[in-house]
Specification:
The chain is an alpha+beta fold and 399 residues long. It is built from 13 helices and 13 strands.
Length: 399
């Protein structure tokens, strides 16, 4: 039996037989450290001459989107991240300028620092980041018990809690409403969807926002942590146009919502396939796979290949052995693959893609009181830890 939060984000199963050790993570930002690993080929292209500036962004207590937004507002430097890192951790990641330059800058605040590494001839992309290294403290556990965990290659590659909002799992619901062109519902979910794990002050505001007649009264009471909500609410008060209000959000945020719904469909798909008894840990003839260089190929009976399952988008093809499960999820959600091409909000359209079904974990070691391990790009440490800890309440456990 999985926790309620897991089922809300499409995770209905555990894929390992390990009993679970319980415990807690993220009591402080120093207890959860993550550092991006850049491909050696990309690193070799760094030079001290002109080009696109590459930086190492070190931060804690602020997520990637807000850090980059603040950097742009204060310093006028527009940067793009290779991956998103949340606020409740100490993180190191690579970011790249979107314009050529000859004068990279270094600066720091109490929450982040930006260190110039050099220049590259072309902007870095997500493919240049090959993985993440983690050092994580788990409190109130027996490390002797952790050492008994041997199922490192049996962890399904679910999208983690952060993808959906963690304490307030609403991102995928907003994304679904966008795809269904129900922008009034999207606005309502963004502003008023509440969760028992959300902050009390946020919940109080959201309950008042369930009534549209309160919009103008509440606008000046929106707390700082609800900055996206403030932008959307302001547009609704001024124009009462849900589509315009949704477009007032940064495009990256709107795309994130749609991608969150894709992630939910993926989670439901591999949960269903696992329960059904589908082979998820080894590819079969006809499957799409990732090779050791993270390139997509058809099954070639190569031991280094890892099975990939479709992430549904408007280019989705039913010719795969997981279509029964994917189609069942889409039917339940009243969404079609073609809906991922939005005629009204075309800029959030997504053709889909593939994701490997299992987590590739390397360099797993225990140095009490911390675990250390490396995961390939796109995999969540919290999903890996979920199989080790089996928390009864993920939020109380720090997830």
């Amino acid at each position: 039996m999985v926790p309620k939060l897991d089922s809300e984000i499409g995770i209905f199963v555990y894929s390992t037989k390990f009993k679970g050790i319980g415990g807690k993570i993220k009591s402080s930002v120093e207890d959860f450290f993550v550092s991006e690993i850049l491909d050696e080929k990309a690193l070799s292209k760094l030079s001290k001459t002109e080009g696109y500036a590459v930086y190492k962004l070190k931060k804690h207590g602020i997520d990637t989107n807000h850090a980059l937004s603040e950097i742009y507002k204060i310093h006028g430097v527009r940067l793009k991240a290779l991956g998103l890192k949340d606020a409740n951790a100490t993180t190191e990641q690579f970011v790249c300028s979107m314009n050529t330059s000859t004068n990279a800058v270094n600066f720091s605040t109490n929450r982040y620092s930006l260190e110039s590494l050099g220049y590259v001839p072309k902007p870095l992309t997500k493919k240049d980041m090959i993985g993440n290294h983690f050092k994580i403290k788990i409190e109130d556990v027996s490390f002797a018990e952790i050492s008994k965990f041997k199922e490192h290659e049996q962890v399904l590659n679910f999208f983690g809690y952060q993808r959906f909002g963690s304490k307030r799992p609403v991102s995928h619901l907003i994304g679904k409403a966008i795809l269904q062109n129900d922008f009034e519902r999207a606005v309502s979910l963004l502003l008023s969807f509440s969760s028992e794990d959300d902050l009390p002050e946020n919940t109080k505001i959201r309950r008042m926002l369930e009534d549209k007649s309160n919009y103008s009264k509440i606008l000046n009471e929106i707390p700082p942590q609800m900055d996206i909500e403030r932008v959307v609410l302001s547009e609704m008060v001024e124009h009462n146009d849900p589509l315009r209000a949704m477009r007032s959000m940064p495009l990256t945020i709107r795309r994130f919502f749609v991608q969150a719904f894709q992630s939910y469909v993926f989670n439901c798909t591999i949960s269903s396939a696992f329960e059904y008894g589908e082979e998820l840990f080894l590819p079969k003839p006809g499957d799409v796979c990732y090779d050791k260089k993270s390139m997509l190929r058809r099954f070639e009976n190569d031991p280094s290949q890892r099975l990939a399952v479709p992430i549904v988008g408007y280019s989705y093809s039913k010719k795969n052995r997981f279509d029964y499960h994917i189609s069942k999820v889409l039917e339940t959600e009243h969404v079609h693959a073609k809906d991922f091409f939005s005629k009204i909000m075309q800029e959030v359209s997504d053709e889909g893609g593939f994701r490997q079904t299992t987590i590739k974990c390397d360099d797993f070691s225990i140095s009490e009181p911390k675990l250390s391990f490396t995961l390939s790009r796109g995999s969540y440490a919290t999903v890996f830890l979920r199989e080790i800890m089996k928390p009864q309440d993920p939020i109380k456990a720090g997830f």
